[in-house]
Amino acid sequence: MNDSTAGSLITKRFQKRRSLWLFLGFAAADILCVGAGMGVPIFPILLGFPVGYAIARTLAARSLALRDLLAKILLCAALTSAFTLVLMMVIWGPVAIRLADPAFDVANFGIPLILYDPLASFVGWLGLMIVVSPFLQLLTTLLGAHLTLLWWLERNPDRELLQ
Questions:
Q1: Most distant CA pair in the chain, distance
Q2: For a pLDDT cut of 90, what percent of the chain falls above it?
Q3: N or C: which end of the chain has fewer CB within 10 A?
Q4: Cα(77)–Cα(137) distance, integer angstroms
């Protein structure tokens, strides 16, 4: 094994470990943001902007073609959103099971009654918390990443991405 092969193996291992540490850091920040919002994921949605920035800066440093770069950004954003989806299912899933309980008092549960019927408001609230919020986080992460790429490409006009 020559030195360049050994160096590339060490670099790949370092990048895998760095990616793992970055994801674990995101997971800790996401859990903290969900906790700060007391189960309402407004802070994880806002966390999408700096996460998108970090994803784009990390991936733009590698020499990737534009198609590969955008695909990896989409994959990373989907992974972060999937983690938030799992968190929301863990938090709000047990509450959703209570819909089958005939003795469950939906009107006094403590959610905003934004619709005319308390049951419809409760189902809408669960839909917002479990499905819509992780999707909004995906959108903010993608927006943060793409704005970062635009800024980065403007500052590095000699970078050839259309390979």
A1: 72
A2: 43
A3: N
A4: 8
Say how far apart CA 143 and CA 156 lie, in whole Å. Answer: 20
pLDDT at 59 over 80: yes
Is the Cβ–Cβ distance between 34 and 44 less than 8 Å? yes
Query: Which of these ranges, 34-38, 69-73, 84-88, 153-157, has the smallest mean pLDDT?
Result: 153-157
The mean pLDDT value for 121-141 works out to 93
Domain ranges of the chain: 23-155
Q: Which amino acid is at 87?
A: L
